[in-house]
Task: inverse folding
C-alpha cells in the first residue's frame, strides 16, 4: 500500500486525523474493503501502512469477513489449529504410538470384542494396540515400544492421518 510520503493514489482517500488516532481504521474504508471482497469473491485482503496493518478474511458460503487490525510494528497474526498444537506438545512430552498410514482406526477386532488395549495396560513392542483400515485392507498397529498406555488419543471408527498420535505411552 502506498504511504503519505510517496504520494500514491491511496492518499486521496486517506482521512486526515490527529497522530494519536492513526492506529484506528476508518469504518467507511473498512466497509468499502468488505464490499470489494464480496464483489470480487476474494477470501483475504492484507493491507499494511506505516501505522497499521489490516487483514480481512472470509470463508466460503457467504460467511462474514473476519477483521484483524494491529499496529504495523506488531507481527502478523498466525492461526494454528489447536488440535495440531496440542498433539505436537503431547508428542514432545511423552512417546506416542503413531498411525503408520491414513485410514480408519479400530480399537478392537470386531464391534463386539474388547479393545486391544486400555489406559493402564502394559505393552511390549509386538503388542497389537489397534487396526487401521485403508482401502479394505486391515493393518495391525503394534506398540513398537515397551511401556504403559497413558492416554488414548483417538476413538473407535475415527479417521486418522499418517503419523497422527494414537496413544501416549510411559516407557518403563
Result:
Amino acid at each position: 500500500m502506498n504511504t503519505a510520503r510517496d504520494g500514491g493514489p491511496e492518499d486521496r482517500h486517506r482521512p486526515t486525523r490527529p497522530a494519536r488516532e492513526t492506529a484506528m481504521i476508518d469504518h467507511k474504508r473498512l466497509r468499502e474493503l468488505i464490499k470489494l471482497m464480496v464483489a470480487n469473491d476474494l477470501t483475504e485482503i492484507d493491507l499494511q501502512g506505516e501505522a497499521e496493518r489490516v487483514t480481512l478474511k472470509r470463508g466460503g458460503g457467504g460467511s462474514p469477513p473476519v477483521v484483524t487490525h494491529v499496529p504495523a510494528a506488531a507481527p502478523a497474526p498466525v492461526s494454528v489449529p489447536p488440535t495440531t498444537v496440542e498433539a505436537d506438545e503431547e508428542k514432545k512430552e511423552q512417546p506416542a504410538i503413531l498411525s503408520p498410514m491414513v485410514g480408519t482406526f479400530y480399537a478392537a477386532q470386531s464391534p463386539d470384542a474388547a479393545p486391544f488395549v486400555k489406559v493402564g495396560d502394559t505393552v511390549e513392542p509386538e503388542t497389537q494396540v489397534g487396526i487401521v483400515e485403508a482401502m479394505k485392507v486391515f493393518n495391525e498397529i503394534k506398540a513398537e515400544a515397551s511401556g504403559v498406555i497413558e492416554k488414548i488419543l483417538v476413538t473407535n471408527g475415527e479417521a486418522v492421518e499418517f503419523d497422527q498420535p494414537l496413544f501416549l505411552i510411559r516407557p518403563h
In short: The two ends are 59 Å apart (CA to CA).
